[in-house]
Amino acid sequence: MHWQSFIDIRLNYENNLPVLVIDQTGVLYAPAYRHWLSEKDIEVKLTDEIMEIRKLVDYDKQVLIITAIEDIPFFIRNKITPIAFSYNDLPLNGDIKQAFKNISTSQIVEILDYVFATNMHQVLSANDLEKVLEKSEQFASTKQLSILSNQIKKILAQEADTNNILRLAKLWAELIYLSYKTDNNEYKQLTQQVDAFSDTFIDIKGMEQAFYASTHKKPKTVDKILANIKADKQEKIALICFDCMGFAEWYLLKDFFKNQQWEFEDSAVFALLPTLTSISRSAIFQGNTEVYNLKYPGRNTEAKAFSEYFKDKETKYFTEADEINSNTLLGYEYISILYNFFDELSHSAQFPPNKESKELYFKSVLAYLEKSSIIHDFQILIENGFQIYICSDHGSVVAKGNGRKIEKYLSDDFAKRAVIVNKGNEELINERKVEIPFVEDKILILPEGRTMFANKNQIEVNHGGTTVEEMVVPYIKMKKI
What we know:
By secondary structure, this protein is of the alpha/beta class. Helix content is 40%, strand content 17%. It has helices at residues 3-11, 31-39, 50-58, 74-77, 105-118, 129-156, 162-182, 191-203, 206-213, 225-232, 247-256, 277-286, 299-309, 326-329, 341-348, 359-371, 374-383, 468-471, and strands spanning 19-23, 44-46, 64-67, 83-85, 93-94, 123-124, 237-242, 264-270, 315-319, 334-339, 387-391, 397-401, 411-414, 419-422, 432-435, 442-446, 451-452, 459-462, 472-478. Strand 15 (432-435) and strand 16 (442-446) form a beta hairpin. Helix 7 (162-182) packs antiparallel against helix 8 and helix 7 (162-182) packs across helix 11. The radius of gyration is 26 Å and the shape is globular. It starts with a helix and ends with a strand. The relative contact order is 0.10. The mean pLDDT is 93.
């Protein structure tokens, strides 16, 4: 029996509509319960507007009305008796419900799912809340892994177009992160299929289509991020750029933020090829794709470009080492902060032989986050009225050295996962070749699969290539509190 069925019995709405329920727990607002009701074709209205409740009651609508309003006026109570749904009404045994005021609604739902899937009669103690939360989160993650795998397989059976690549990237990254949390590496069975799908997208010149489809209102590429911010017309903004933060890293960071009760809207956008800081991060701050011949790419050039793009605003480019407080922010309207720890920790991560997962890297990131000032910095920005936007220039993969190298005299720019060469020189190189969108005089040389131009069997977290993990990155807007 499902926990939702017990709640139905408590609410007693069958053949008794309209019913007005005061939800004191948030569980009735949760997607898991709302989906349950929709599957039963029960019309539901979630509202905290008194006049809307009055209309529904006055017209005797056959609807289940759910509200968080505790004080229902007499003129409504006179027509319908509200049902108060409290933590004590949740179908769980024991005194653990008294501790639910200190956790989120999603965590309560996870506990309900876990208990009813394992032993619905077990007695739960408030003293065991932390242990129960850990088990229920693990159960939810394992269940989600199966859902994600099926969703990914459905996409892989479709056309390798822009939208499917962006959808795939988010699902695949979530699968990678949840696999790390649950210590389950079954996802690796899909790696070759996912990479083949990405390769097909590149081969059919999908990147060009992505850039044509990218607009300032709906950016699909990193070069449109500043245009999108400008279109929002916020008085004060903070663009937070995390170098080398792929979607899996974003899910880790968002998980780290979970106790802050912040809400985010995340979307997926393409980095430029090759997926290197000098190319793709430059495109973010330049606001265009004309970055392949920049004389001095880097922070100084980015700060200048950011200032010129928002020339009617007082701007400031901060780095992770700078102090973020009310005094340092004073007088600035549009700021950017660059955090480099993802990139630095990825390149410094040490891997035992044949240990080709991001587990050790993720653990080092979490250890860093615990001691960092990031939560403090975000809190200061919010307190000072800044609308926060979050972006990244590229992601990363765990790559193994192939023992091959590209001669330096042939390359225009070299990275372990991608090499740029001038047109003509590619004929002298026996590796995969990819055209760079909008760049006519250069060609991209890529190593096979998830390898890199490095010592044989050397393992590193690296970037530059065309996997979805490297070329699709998050662009996030924090919802206003």
